[in-house]
Design a protein that fits this description.
The structure holds three protein chains of three kinds. Chain A is mainly α. Chain A has eleven helices and two strands, in the order ααααββααααααα. Classes of the chains: A mainly alpha, B alpha/beta, C mainly alpha.
Chain lengths: 288, 240, 327
Amino acid sequence: MMDTVIATLISGLLLGSLYAMMASGLSLVWTTLGVFNFSHGALMMLGAFVAWTVGEGAGLGVWIGSFSGIAAAMVAGVIIEYFLVRPFYGSRNMLLVTVMTTLAAMIIIEKGAQIIWGSRLKQSPRLFEGDISIGGAIISRQEAFIIVLAPLVLFAIWRFATVTATGRSLRAVGQNQDAAALIGINVNRAFSIAFALSAGLAGLTGVLLGSIRFITPSLGAEPLTKAMIVVIFGGLGSMGATAGAAYVIGFLEAFLILWLGLYWTPFILFVVMITVLILRPNGLFGRK
Amino acid sequence: MSAFLDVENLHAGYGTVPVLRGVSIRLDQGESIGLFGPNGHGKTTLLRCISGLLPSSQGTIRFDGVEITKTRPSDIVAQGLVHAQQGNTLFGDMGVAETLALSAFVPRARKTSTETLEYVYELFPRLAERRKQLAKTLSGGERQMLSIGCALMCNPRLLILDEPTLGLSPKLKQELCDATAKIAARGIPLIIVEQDVDFLLTLTDRLYLIDHGTVEREIAADNAPDHAEIVKMYFGAEDA
Amino acid sequence: MTRNRLFTITLVGIAALFFPMIFQDSYTRHLAILALIFAVIVSNWDLSLGFAGLFNFGHTTFFGVGVYTAAILAKTFEVNPWLAMIAGGLSAAVVAVIIAAPVAKLKGIYVVLVTFAFSQLALQLVLSQGQITGGAEGMVRIPSLRIGDYNFARDFKLGYYYTALGLTAISTTFLLLVARSPFGKSLRAVRDNEDYATARGISVARQRILVLVVSAIFTGIAGGFYAVYLRVASPEVFGFATLSLALSMVLIGGTGTIIGPIFAALVLTFVSEGMAGIRGFEEARFIVIAVTMIAILRIAPGGAIDLMSKAVSIGRPPPTDLKSKNT
């Protein structure tokens, strides 16, 4: 019994780690630009595919592959911001329009991936092979790596946002765009940076996912929905709330799978999310 | 001699609504000017055009000989033209010290940031007492001080203050007036927009009355008509 | 309705009636039928999205629910396909109530996320309850429509065509009536200025529930029709491809106009299926559609959302240059 609980806890940690990294990218773009990036999942998938192609296909190895995947996602993010988000800034229905343009971007990336890489399942090799045992439960080294990496990544983001001038400038732009411009911050550049970072996070998550799951063009669809549940649950207001909500959902999901099985879990998670929203229309910790 | 700031025949508006209809003002080396006039007639719009937040449809703006009509706001700040907006708009979730530190963003500001920060705390002791406080929890007067403090941190060659005493108690008004005088005394030329014409007269060399989107009158501060005249101008102008 | 408009619509209606005389082959009629189905879907979507200004991203859920309801009723429970089709509309309306309840009080982005999440949930449900729904493979050999002994698939789908046409006509008339009704006016009021409308006593929450339910009815029936026409039900109906295709029709047709999306549906269905026929374009056509969607949004000033037909616009506030985060 005990090792099932431990196994579930670890599973929850793993899910929470992945969700935290995914959702923080979404939250970053939301708090800085006020945009919900529907192509976030597709950027993940792009990262996974590029990592695979460079790492496996071209044989350049896992590390170079991983960095290429992240880089590719970042480039795509900058392009999306420039062509599909920036032209609509300040317009009356910016939120809805950018939802649609980023949705279109998702379609383009997904179908593009379908055409380029096809539907046959692929998987990237792991950075760390083998398994380790924690309290009786067995987990692969790669998954343990992810669990350790996530808090480090979150910490790095936090330090970036609070200590560096660039990070602070992103927060400033998110809170008051005009005031930010008037202290000399180049708002357009801030947008690009925010999107690039967000896309980089998506790419990183994709690269990691690609090593423990199979890579297909629709790799990003389910994580996007989960990330959505996380940001709805935690509220889009702050990145800290998003990270917290991610781990909560991760654990919740792991235990639900244990008790209710795989079939009913998405449904219950969903019901939980809706309930939270009814009680607190701005999310559990949300502010706006 | 070319002006330090030269605005020529500026036209601007919001969407289809024109606000500025050919405004021309000038700030020469070594002087400070004031803008006053009824609300909604273009003072803030003019400032937003100068600082680059609002594009103009016609006319030119020159700062120290360089044309900045189509320059983006961050580049204008980088050249030393700084605008402290009306209504103490700030970054609600950032602390006082954090905001001031961030405001030394452009290269010319980073060079002088340490001394300027000391100066700002000296000028506004209240800010020094509230270094870690979040901007949104500050009182109106404190936010105004922070707003001016941020503008100073940008190391301005020309400072624009939009209604610095708006909504403040007489005591705070006096505090801010004194602080502004000290800033002017340091040698930073100012453009001040204010309702309080007396405030302007003590701090500036020339005043412009902005009415219906144009310059109605230009008054030299040392040759100003008496108070009653100005009030008449101010309110009388509204009927025009 | 202006004289010109009435004239155009009558003209189109007559052309539609005689369409099968000119195009007697099965494939063209098939495209026309699909086009009409999409026309119903997207014009109803326009009611909630464009006309009422509700950021509803779960509209294809109604369609999918209609499809599966009819499929399960007609095939598994051997209900009369006509009734199954209507039942599709009813169940879609019920689902609309379920979705609308939490959505009623949410703001902006949360409406998008929750309605969208519902569509994913529906997809999940369909995939997981394989015994009833056929799971990922879907259902096949759903009974076809017939009157007495006459199977509608005969005569190169003639019967199906006229049914689709009739459905479209009824749905459109219904939508236009709703648009002109006091309810319709109150929807526009809420869209254009929510705070003011609330101050005037209009219950936004109730509006949202009503408009979602109203827009779901014929969408669900269209779904039911789709099931008994194609005789297959697949989870694809809940997917992104269907969603983006429908959305592009709404956008290109012009949001808030109701009629616009119908024409867009007719044109785009032919274009889309036509592209599917070209080798190598089956997947790429979605990229073309997505790019078109973006182009429309870029080129129409302020986004296609602002491109309302004159008959529908009510004193819009002038656009400002102030950059603000829209919620």
